[in-house]
Design goal:
The chain is α+β, with helices and mostly antiparallel strands and 305 residues long. The protein has one domain (4-121, 144-300): Acyl-CoA thioesterase, double hotdog domain (Porin), CATH 2.40.160. The chain contains five helices and twelve strands. The protein has a twelve-stranded antiparallel sheet with strand order 1-2-4-5-6-3-9-12-11-10-8-7, with helices on one face. A hairpin with a 3-residue loop joins β4 (80-89) and β5.
């Protein structure tokens, strides 16, 4: 993906996707992804829910953490409604609960996600960091994620369905470059750790709330797959059945999502049909800008050895 106009269009589409519309007091509507197929990407629901919460908080308070539970998979196509509960408004902190609801085919409505976000007025305080940025190759030295996807599709040939091929090669507004082999890149068991650079494919507006939403969106990429690495299995090859169960982010400092960020993920445990994953996000200066945690369902597909 090298065409500048295409990159700008993709990122403009992402900004539009993550811009929620106010329907009435404390109710916002998130639009569906254009051309989306099957189940809604979890990062989209997380980011739209955060955007709705951010719009309900007085100016001056910034999101510093969110905790969410995925209840059901959302369907591509219908819009998603985000209902806000204002649980707390203090001088330094505020708290919002968000329920994401989607209409079913029979007209009934179903909650698909619960999210709680906490906000704080920025202040100075005691500082320490016990999480140095790994010494890894920069993004300029690595192949793009899309190049690697094209190579995989060419290698696997007819073993991929048309739907899998379309999903793999669909242009993305988030550019990624990985230093390690992710779960879809090989079938050899390996340590549950991965390092991936990411940024939007074109510049974003100077809106810190939008940059937090985009980082939230991108944080759902590569994370759950880290717990699959020791098993040499992949969702992309149809060997696993899985879904995100929860997702938490702590924002430590402001960061631009249109500048390279390093996403370091590890998975200390899997068992009982679940995998637990952690992530640390660094900027190019080596500052820890966010921490992430997620547990997901992870089951071997029946018939897979």
């Amino acid at each position: 993906m090298t065409d500048t106009r295409t990159r700008e269009q993709l990122v403009a589409g992402l900004v539009k996707l993550l811009t929620v519309d106010k329907a009435c007091a404390d109710v916002f509507i998130g639009r569906p992804q254009k051309g989306g197929m099957g189940r809604v990407f979890g990062g989209q629901v997380l980011a739209q829910a955060l955007q709705a919460a951010q719009l309900s908080v007085p100016e001056g308070k910034q999101a510093h953490s969110l905790h969410a539970y995925f209840l059901r998979g959302g369907r591509e196509g219908p819009p998603i409604e985000y209902r806000i509960q204002r649980d707390f408004d203090g001088r330094s902190f505020a708290n919002r609960r968000v329920v994401a609801v989607q209409e079913n085919e029979d007209g009934s409505c179903t909650p698909i996600l619960n999210l709680t976000a906490s906000f704080q007025v920025p202040e100075d305080g005691l500082e320490h960091v016990d999480a140095p940025m790994p010494d890894v190759a920069g993004p300029e030295e690595l192949k793009s994620d899309m190049e690697m996807r094209h190579e995989m599709v060419e290698t696997m040939g007819d073993r991929l369905s048309e739907a899998q091929r379309t999903l793999m090669l669909r242009p993305r507004p988030i550019e990624m470059r990985t230093l390690d082999k992710l779960h879809w890149m090989n079938s050899e068991p390996r340590a549950p750790r991965a390092h991936t650079w990411f940024r939007t494919a074109a510049p974003l507006p100077d809106d810190p709330a939008l940059h937090r939403a985009v980082i939230t969106y991108a944080s759902d990429y590569t994370l759950l797959g880290t717990s699959a690495l020791p098993h040499g299995l992949s969702w992309m090859r149809g060997e696993l059945v899985g879904a995100s169960l929860d997702h938490a982010i702590w924002f430590h400092r402001e960061a631009r999502a249109d500048e390279w960020l390093l996403y370091c993920t590890d998975a200390p445990w899997s068992g009982g049909g679940r995998g637990f994953n952690r992530g640390r996000i660094f900027n190019r200066a080596g500052d820890l800008v966010a921490s992430v945690a997620q547990e997901g369902m992870m089951r071997r597909r029946k018939g897979v050895q």
